[in-house]
Structures are given as structure tokens and as C-alpha cells.
Amino acid sequence: MSRTLIDIIDDDEAVRTALELLVRSYGWRARAYASAQEYLEDPAQAAHAADCLLLDLNMPGMGGAELMERLAARNVATPVIVVTGETRSPLAERARRAGARAVLDKPFAEDELKSEIEALLTK
Amino acid sequence: MEKDDRDVQAELIEALELYQAVLDTAVDGIITIDGDGRILSFNHAAERIFGYRAAEVIDRNVSLLMPEPYRSEHDGYLHNYRTTRRKKIIGIGREVEGRRKDGTVFPIELAVGEVNPPGKRVFTGFIRDISDRKQAELEARRRQDELAHLARVHSMGDLAAGLAHELNQPLTAILGYARACLRMIGAGSADLELLRQSMEQIARQGERAAEIIRRLRRYVEKGEIDRQPSDLGARVQEALAMLQHQIKAHAVKVRVNGTEGLPPLLLDSIQIEQVLVNLARNAIEAMTGAQVEAPELELVAALSDTPLGVRLSVRDNGPGFGDTAPDELFAPFFTTKKEGLGQGLSICRRIIEAHGGRLWAEPNHPQGAAFHLWLPLPTRNGNGHPGGRSAP
After folding, report:
1. Each residue's pLDDT tens digit, B195-222
2. What are phi and psi of A61, to 5 degrees?
3. Among A60, B102, B185, B235, which residue has the least CB neighbours within 10 Å?
4. Fold of A5-118
5. What is the pTM of this model?
6. Do B239 and B280 meet the contact criterion of CB atoms below 8 Å apart?
7. Which chain B residues are Cβ-neighbours of A18 within 8 angstroms?
8. Between chains, do A18 and B180 touch, taking CB under 8 Å as contact?
9. Which residues partner with B94 through β-bridges?
């Protein structure tokens, strides 16, 4: 079986790159996208689904919650971990309803991200 | 005959005593002086106000009741009046300072009258101690300043969510890079170039956070108006940047027109940004509060020639003013917000007027609210033109 693959969507370049580096430092592979559209349009992503999607909510254009609803409509089952600055916002609530496995606060605590992803993978 | 004289004398004394009693029951201090400034009479209220007994001051120069510079100038005033008859204070009330026996200086309201019995010149001074009123005025002004500050901090509270979000981004990035670096070093797999790049990113994100804090500090600091040549268009961009989070969160469509290439104005940039943030935020809150389907915020600037200046309009397609007359919005403590202090617009108007400009509101067409502000172009002597009182 191939190594664990994590997709990251965040419009903030610094956050996106840092998450990518952090995920790689855990020994996993990572793909990073600057927007929900870019993610949906990536053929590599369509061909090979990731084990987990790390998703920002507040993004220009299509937001994270909307993307989750679209993925659900297409029966895409990739588990989603939301990483957001506002865990109690209506958007976060919408993401939970759309099936987010976890909603992490930005910035998240040490190893919180790692343990959430590991919990998903062992299920 | 003798008896009659005695009667007249008695009556005179009685009349004098009556007048003295009247003077002594007066609330105001009443002092009479002769043409050279010597004190002729000093009533009870004057004793109370200045702390001198009448006997201590009668025949002395009235200037002892004054602090400098009045004290040394008073003889000169009297002399001038004798020679020129030009009245500087006689017949008019004026706020000056008095000096008590214990040396303390206090504000008084002084009215001076002139009586001219045959062959004499007598001036009457009516004195009211206005320390309490001054104190109250000062207190009121201080409270106003505090309210203005409070309102800024309060609108800051609204912005705090947005700023916290802005800060979370660089912090998340910094923590991500740092933890990744630590893991790479710990695993002995550290690629020096990758570490260097990551450190560089950490520093850059630290700077980004610091800049957000600086902006926050600028925003909450109390300050006097400090006008410098400034580009109104840049102020609009700054204001929108501060509201970026709210704009994004509520999917507000923002249109900006005519703000480029405007002539520089003399502005206190921070205060003007505060006004713009307030107007734009009010618009956004009004639209989202009314759940407008496609909220639109429009900022349009244009030169206006009569009077010469720049006009900026902030329009929204929210619910508008309803039954409220637009001008009522600017009254202090007017608010439609549950947690509002109702200070925002009144402060905005004060700021714009301090710039010699005008701020007013009217219904927007076909719907919503429109706030217009007009700011004068700088005149040649470097000051903002105070402008007309009417709206351009």
C-alpha cells in the first residue's frame, strides 16, 4: 500500500506551505491547493483520492463548507478535517453538518493535527 | 429744625444700612473702586469669594485680587480708560481670573459698571466664582474624549474578530513551519536549504503579525487630529483591508470608483480611515442584518467644484433608514444596534467637521442608504478650506 496522502486547501499561501511541510515532516505525502476550484479541477486528485483533506473554510470564491457539500453530493467519501480561525462560526457549523470529522482551531495545538489524522487512518 | 436734621441723618443712615444689607445679601461679589483702583467697598460675598475681610482690602489697590498678568496691567487699563474712554470691559461680562487671599487662582465672571457721582469716578465690579461651572465644562469635555475613545475601542471590538482571524493566519504558519523544522532536525533528516527557507518564512510571518498589531495599536490610540497631505483613495483601500474579513464572510460585493488619482488632501489618515471603516461597517451590518440577498457596497469619489473639494459616497443596498430622518442618525447615542453605543456616526461627523468637511446621509436609489462626505482641497496657505455651511 502506498504512503498516506493528505490534500491541503487554504488560500493563505504561508499557512498552506507550512501545513504541507508539517504533514511531510510526519512522513506523509501532501498535495496543496490555493482554492476549492483548483482542487476540483486537478486531474491527479480526481484520479487518486487522498486519505484525508485538510480544509480551510473562509476562502474567496467557493468556501470550504460549500466544497464539502459538493463532494457529498458526488458521493466522495474523503474524510475532511477543517482547519479554521472560527470554530464556532455558522460556516463551521455548516461544515460539521456536511460531515467534517474534526474542526481544528487556527492555530492548532502541538500534535493535534497529527493525532486527528492518525485517528482517521486507523478507522 | 435741629430735630429735622437729625431725622434726615437718621433716615440717611437707615437708607445706607439698607443698601449695605442689600449688597451683603447678594450672591455675587460686589466691589467698588475709585478711578485710581482703590477699593471703596467689599461686600460679604466678595469676602467669601476672595477670603479677605472687607477691612483688610478697603483703600488698597484692587489689583491685589488678581493674578498676573492682570495684576500688573490693571493700573494701565484704568489709565487708558481715563485718557481714551475706550471701554474694554465696562458694560460687558468677561471670564477672567481672580486670586484669593491664600494665593489660589480661580476663574471668575466679571461685569464692570461705571457710576459717576458728581466730581468722582466709581467703578462697580460684579464677580461670580465660576470654578464649579468650569470644572463641569472640563469634566464634560473629558467625558466626551473618553466616549470617543470608548467608541473607537468598541468598534474595535467588532473588528477584533476580524483581526484575531488575521493574526491566526501568520501564527498558524509560524507554528507549522517551526514544528516541521523541529521534526526534521529531530529525525536527523534536516535539509539545510529547506530549514533556511522555513526560517525565512517564520520571520516573514512574524513581521506580518507585527504589522497587524501595529495597525491595531494605531487604531485604538487616542490622538489629536494630525493632518498631513494624504491620498483619500489609499485611505479607502486601507479601510476596506481592515474590513476584508467581514466583506469575505458575508460575500459583500465591493465596488470602488474614482478614488484613483485624486489630488492630495490634508487628512488625519487614521481618523479618516476610522470614519470610512465605520461607514462601511455600518453598511455591511445593515445589509447582512436585513439578510439582503446580494449585498453591495459602493464607494465612489469625485471632485466637486462648488465648493472646491472631494466628495466620497458610501452606498449600500440594505434596508435604508426606514422612518428615521437621515440626520437623526448623527445624534450621539442614536443606535439601532443591540450592543451599540450610538457614538459612531456622531464621532464620524465630528472628525469630518474637524477637517473642515461635511458628512450627511440620504436614502440611496433604488434602495439602501447613502452617506456622503465632502472634504476641502488644501488652500495655498496650507490649511483646509473651511468650506461653506451648505452641502455641496
Report:
1. 999 999 999 999 989 887 776 666 555 4
2. 75, -130
3. B102
4. Rossmann fold (3.40.50)
5. 0.44
6. yes
7. 172-177, 180, 201
8. yes
9. B110
